[in-house]
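Hello,

Following up on my earlier ticket. Below are the two sequence lines again, exactly as submitted.
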Amino acid sequence: MTWLLLAILAALPMPGTQFKQLPDSKGKAEIEHACYTCHSPDLLAQQRLTPKQWTATVEKMMRWGAELKESDKQVAIDYLSRHFGPENRFTPTATTPMK
Amino acid sequence: MDRRTFLGITAATAVMPKRLLQMNGYPLNLETPLELLTDYLTPNDLFFVRSHWIPRMPDLKTWRLTVDGEVKKPLKLSLADLKKMPLAETTCVLQCAGNGRGLQNPPMPGVQWRYGAVGNALWRGVRVKDVLDRAGVNAGAAHLHTFGSDDPPGKVPPFQRSIEMEKSLDDCILAWEMNGVPLPPQHGAPLRLIVPGWAGDHWMKWLVRLSPQKAPQSGFYMDTAYRWPLNPGAPGVAFKPEEMKPLTELAVKSNITTAPKAVTMRGIYDIRGFAFSGAPDIAKVEISDDNGATWKAAQLDARHSPHAWRLWHYRWTPAKPGRATLLARATDSRGATQPRETVWNQSGYLFNGWHSVDIEVKA
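Thanks for your patience. The regenerated structure is below:
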């Protein structure tokens, strides 16, 4: 029993070592390629945006250097809108205190 | 300690281990769980972390703070040079401008902070005024431009800012210490700007350059981001940058950190929290259990310094069985009172609507 509890304690990851996994569906590969260079998937998975807001955000990121082909843009926006719309609920990963 | 106590302690910590909430793994953005914000000085390892980009950690042997721009004598100062100057310290609140964005409706893009992008710490270093006096600021330099060492990729705009010279000379500090230990890397080592009473976007981390100038800094993080509507509109309304001004002072706010989930009618219960504002002090914190119809004063903790938070506590006696909702609201030393609803703004800054907790009251 004690060991089990201690194991749970030890299981908290160090900050920045574990990330949310994005759900599998059409557009995930494009997102991973275009967005993971500059931030972890957590930042995407916590948003609660309308398709209009996602379009503006993706276009801003493309201006800032996200590698997303113009022809893949809509697939990416659809993916983000499908999974991270206004009703989205997000539970952040709990990490260890930061020394 | 006997076996049962040991198991009890282990079980309690396993249920509620001290932890941070990861909002972004890189660059690092970490929120403190609200229920852990119960200390007057927030421990460094639990203090929230906000980064726009990943910093380059300098070699302290070669690190220098450059002071240039509208000055008579440009300077390059090592940490040792700075440490020879008169020591200054202040205890004050650091809150991310976007703390509470995740509570805004309708939602907007950005880190979806809820309650915990805030903390209170003792900062130690030198006064900005003492450093600028050594360089001799030219007449007419009205803005202090500030630069950190984080250098973003691609066409990402650099996080560069400026603050009014008047504020920087008044009470700003260049800090190398946080709560009595060297500033940790994630909090801006080796040097960070402390701007008491103002939102975190002004508190430049990984500071490498100060430059007094006649005009404010330009760029994305001055001209587009971190602006506040001149005349705030209804929720959902978006303003053009010229209809907004740079956001500066924090808004008056209080949060409840400690409250029981379930109680009985026969007890008196301890409710705790913190309160702060852009004003130097909090005048009162009040609690309501009837949806704001009547309010009773909470007890303010004696510990304080200008722009630090005030811890408070309140002894609550349930009035009737059922679900009770407790509300907290703060009033600052200039008379501003926390509003029921926050002022909605398109970037979700400075959320300060009344905070509530629900408590189950059993007969």
